[in-house]
Amino acid sequence: MKKQPFNIFYTEIENITKATVALRADNAGNEELALVEGRLAQVVKIRGSMVTLQVFSGTEGIANNARVEFLGTAPSLALSDKLKGRFLNAYGQPIDERPAVEGPLTEIGGPSVNPVRRKQPNTPIFTGIAGIDLNNTLVGGQKIPFFADPDQPYNEVMATVALRAKADKIILGGMGISNDDLIYFKDTFRNAGVLDKIIAFINTTQDPPVERLLIPDMVLTTAEYFAVEKQEQVLVLLTDMTLYADALSIVSNRMDQIPSKDSMPGSLYSDLARIYEKAVQFEGNGSITIIAVTTLNQGDITHAIPDNTGYITEGQLFLRKDSETGKVIIDPFRSLSRLKQLVIGKKTREDHPQIMNACIRLFADASEAKIKKENGFELTEYNNRTLAFAKSYTESLLAIDVQMDMEEMLDKAWELVGKFFQPEETGIKQAMVEKYWKD
Length: 439
Prior knowledge:
The chain is of the alpha/beta class. The protein has helices at residues 130-133, 154-164, 179-192, 215-229, 241-254, 268-276, 304-312, 352-374, 381-398, 406-420, 430-436, and strands at residues 8-10, 13-16, 20-24, 33-36, 39-47, 50-55, 68-70, 76-78, 87-88, 105-107, 124-125, 138-139, 143-148, 169-177, 198-204, 233-239, 280-281, 287-295, 315-321, 328-330, 336-337.
């Protein structure tokens, strides 16, 4: 971004929409910040001398002769160890009643890591939730979304992940979250005594929606600082990417761009990819792992937002309520971590792949038995055992309110399988049965 010895201002705006203003200006830079009648704005399009500025707080009350002053710099963030434990807004300003963060200013939104600097992920990240650790093990440097209906407690799950994850830094990006959720996050982290490894950038429902577009870049610029400069394992939690995409749509529609599928901008894929591709395992010790909530509209996974997300990321975690037990679980059928094969049985206990696959297969048998029951067919003795197993498996392992260490999960899984089945019914290799079977 260019630097100017003095700022230039203009007073002839040619076009005003609800979110943008357009004027003729010289030497404006892409993503450069500006002030429009004192309101912060950013360059989003340059065509010849015509420059379009996105006004974060909206354009209501702005006249055609409003003063527009270009600041000569892109959005920047002060990076230092003093970010630890801080809650900041979309501009990196404090919302925790503490002084501004001091440190060298760094422009946000840089390019993703060069592929030659990437290392194949090989370190598991444990969260204490069996639906993740046991069935869909996460790996440092992975990018994975959390698909959930809006009424599911996804922010509570994210807070749990933040508390339990074995990471050096947890960086939370909240987009369009309620004040209640903000208070919940603050209180949860403070009460657990983990504020020293938490950094949060928050846009609430009371803040302008367009400001959400700054949150991921603020979060990921911070993540890169700690992963590269400090060689730390960084876990990034983003919630909610659907509200981020909605903000993209607001700006796109008000710039009269032709929408693509589901009223989303045609650039949605590249906009999302630019964020998710920041997940990386560096050649050194540092890594950035991204877990991002994407709320669904009535469970519609074909909507443009989750659909595009699925092409970019390495699996998905699907949150749903179990109809039998009333527990919220990580769905074992619709969830998948495509990188788990890199670590299960290698960086986890040797029996992990065997007992994981056995539990999911038996859970699938229970689903078939449930369908038989619902359609009035007579159940076999094996069907009844699978149903009893599924209930215990859901309550004891799959439910998100059950938290335990990896070794405990594996032992519990063996205990449940041994309670309801004989070894020959499980498909587990004999060598593993002899070593780990629990009667």
